[in-house]
Amino acid sequence: MNKLVRSDVYYPTVVSLKDSRSANGGNKAAAAARRFLFKNKRRIMLCACLIAIGAAFGVFAYIRMSAENKNAVFAYMQNYFSGSVLLGASPGEIFKAAFPPLIVTGIIVALGGILPPLLPFALARLIFKGFSMGFSAAFFIARYGLKGAAFALVSVVLCGALPLCASVWLLLECRAARGDTPPARGKKRLISWFALKPKACLKAAICLAVFAAAALVSALFDSVIGHGMMKSLYGIFSAF
After folding, report:
1. Which of 4, 79, 95, 107 matches a 20 to 30 Å C-alpha distance to 87?
2. H or E element at residue 33
3. Under a CB-based contact definition with an 8 Å cutoff, are residues 142 and 148 in contact?
4. Cβ atoms within 10 A of the Cβ of 37, count?
């Protein structure tokens, strides 16, 4: 009988309350992200297409730019790399140049999401963001060759991904806060577009505050980490 009894005693693993709460929080966040992507997959694809169109126009604009203007852009970037304070090479000046446009973008996108007549302005803002990213990538690759791909990765992808994704999220969340447009006609339909519920305005304001926090993080990254990485890459490439 004793042979049937195992001498090793196993105790069940108990997950602490703190760890279980953090795990549940992570699962809820991941589930919310999946629901957001699944519910808005067509709208996200539309925004991605608009950004890609803007990027293509940015590449085309750089290709068609005159040699004089290309040299002016190159002189600006040389000033950026050399550390001169004339054109914003200091982190403080880069932050001042980067943060206000992001806030303007957030306001335009939020208003375009919650007010249907202003939606084209929000979509145009996304196209313009794609244009600037495409133009920057085309400049770096055309001017610096394969080395420019590393510059484009830092300045366009790393520094631009967060505010771009936050802009798309803000637009879709404000659209969801607005809800369906009432089926009115004529002048009443235009008035109904601007008739907002307090709950929708509050949600849009909260989303705009979240976007502002993301814009602040992005501007700090761009002015400190991104600037340092760009100058480090330039110093490494200049040595060869």
Report:
1. 107
2. helix 17-39
3. yes
4. 10
Amino acid, single-letter form, for residue 148: G
Do residues 115 and 204 lie in contact, with contact meaning Cβ atoms separated by under 8 Å? no
Using N-to-C axis directions, what is the helix angle for 119-144 and 67-82, rounded to 10°?
Answer: 80
List all residues 6 or more positions away from 85 whose beta carbon is below 8 Å from its beta carbon.
Answer: 93
N-to-C CA span, the chain: 79
Q: How far is CA 208 from the centre of its chain?
A: 13
What string of pLDDT tens digits covers the 240 residues of the chain?
Answer: 455 444 455 445 544 555 555 556 557 777 777 887 788 888 899 999 999 999 999 999 999 988 888 888 887 777 666 654 434 457 777 888 889 999 999 999 999 988 888 889 999 999 999 999 999 899 988 888 888 888 888 888 888 899 999 999 999 999 888 775 555 555 555 556 666 777 888 888 999 999 999 999 999 998 888 877 877 777 777 666
Report the chain's C-alpha Rg in angstroms: 24
Packed helices 41-64 and 159-178: angle between N→C axes, nearest 10 degrees: 140
Q: What is the pTM of this model?
A: 0.77
- Distance (Å, rounded) from C-alpha 128 to C-alpha 150? 23
137 vs 155: CA distance, rounded Å: 8
DSSP 3: G
Note the Cα 146 to chain centre separation in Å. Answer: 25
